[in-house]
Design brief:
Length: 417
């Protein structure tokens, strides 16, 4: 069996499983944010009922309405708090950070675990060697609560092997975006995508994180990087949590193997209307932007702030651009303060926001008017996601976002004089 099959076999009490089997597996962690948690709680209270079987295995993070802008939003958060406390569920209130970064930073996700969440980007936790899958707000997430279990059809595994060394200036975010364009949106329906090969194995943890994040755009069920010494070192940096149960492939074959040479990948931009609409940044050079943002599931990392500070050294944000920087977690903000990145970016003209998911869906910030454009590190760029359906969202790496904030147009950081 491979890693995913071994995790599902363990959690369902089987000696072995194979693709196509349907299993009922013990869930190690169910995660929700404030929006999906509100929907899940309604389903649980009105349609399911009963006590929450393992409240210690459930976490809710307030990361969308992190500063509720309306009375209705405040009422939702109040109801969520009361529901979480009534059921003994772990609650991470406003200001803790993005849902996925917060639960990882608090040690709640471990190698070999089964993680489910009412958020479509839940598969990102495969970066730690977990089996992580998204569940619907109004169906499966609500029924995990009383049983502590979920059912899965064991997926076929597709191994994506990456070789080569990208040119200077091309980052892991660029390569991850490029892969979506190469494989195609919806190109790996219900697959378990393993990211492997020399390029992936040499990446630090938070750069590996960027690959499972995009598996939802490929149509995959889950994705993962098999645990190794990089994973082990990162897990040691986390607070003590549940016992690690890392699973390693023992000869299980992938249904397909896709090989890509990343040696020629240039910095990328995902253009509207979808993540798979990719172009080299040079093809978009000169496109005006009014907003730039570091944040979201793919951004707000310490690595992003370091990259932005390097680009902005000796420069200032363009007067026609609002450059928003959003830490992915309180821990990241603390490190950014210690390294002097907060002051450096502030003095360059950037605006800091609380640890959260940033302008994701524009619940608290980042709403655009018709004809305006934003370039960001976010994970989605659908029309209407951040305000007007006639606004444009471009996705890119932190270097490109920072360079564009300086010039007021989409810019390759390597082209700054």
């Amino acid at each position: 069996m491979n890693m995913v099959e071994k995790i599902l076999a363990r959690a369902s009490g089987r000696q072995s499983v194979e693709p196509g089997d349907v299993v009922v597996a013990e869930v190690d962690l169910l995660i929700m944010h404030d929006l999906s948690g509100w929907l899940t709680s309604r389903v649980f209270d009105k349609q399911v009922g009963g006590p929450v079987r393992h409240p210690e295995r459930v976490a809710m993070v307030f990361d969308h309405h992190y500063s509720p802008p309306t009375e209705d939003a405040a009422d939702m958060l109040k109801a969520n708090r009361e529901w979480a406390r009534r059921n003994g569920i772990q609650l991470f209130d406003c200001g803790n950070g993005n849902i996925h970064h917060t639960v990882v930073r608090r040690g709640l996700v471990r190698p070999g675990a089964i993680v489910v969440g009412s958020d479509s980007h839940t598969p990102v936790h495969g970066a730690l060697g977990a089996f992580a899958a998204a569940l619907g707000n109004d169906s499966h997430a609500g029924t995990v609560l009383p049983y502590g279990k979920a059912w899965f059809r064991v997926p076929e595994t597709v191994r994506v092997e990456l070789v080569g060394t990208p040119p200077p200036g091309t980052t892991a975010r660029d390569v991850a975006l490029w892969l979506v364009g190469q494989i195609g949106e919806g190109g790996l329906i219900y697959a378990a995508v393993e990211f492997a090969g020399p390029y992936v194995k040499e990446l630090p943890f938070w750069d590996r994180w960027l690959f499972p994040l995009l598996c939802v755009d490929l149509g995959a069920k889950c994705s993962f990087v098999e645990p190794d010494e990089v994973t082990e070192e990162f897990v040691r940096s986390l607070p003590p949590g549940a016992a690690d149960r890392p699973a390693h492939s023992d000869g299980g074959e992938a249904a397909r193997v896709l090989r890509f040479d990343v040696g020629g990948v240039a910095p990328q931009v995902a253009c509207p209307p979808t993540v798979g609409n990719l172009a080299d940044v040079s093809a978009l050079a000169g496109t005006p932007v009014q907003y730039a943002e570091l944040g979201g599931h793919a951004g707000g990392r310490l690595e992003d702030f370091r990259a932005a500070a390097a680009v902005l050294q000796g420069r200032r944000v363009h007067p026609d651009v609002r450059f928003n920087v959003v830490p992915s977690s309180r821990e990241v903000f603390t490190e950014a303060v210690r390294e002097g990145l907060v002051l450096a970016l502030h003095e360059a003209g950037a605006t800091w926001f609380p640890p959260s998911t940033g302008s994701n869906q524009a619940y608290n910030m980042g709403a655009m008017a018709a004809g305006e454009s934003m370039i960001s590190t976010h994970a989605r760029n659908f029309p209407g996601r951040n305000g007007s359906a006639e606004a444009n969202m471009y996705l890119a790496a932190a270097r490109t976002v920072a360079a564009s904030a300086v010039t007021g147009t989409i810019t390759d950081a390597g082209e700054l004089a």
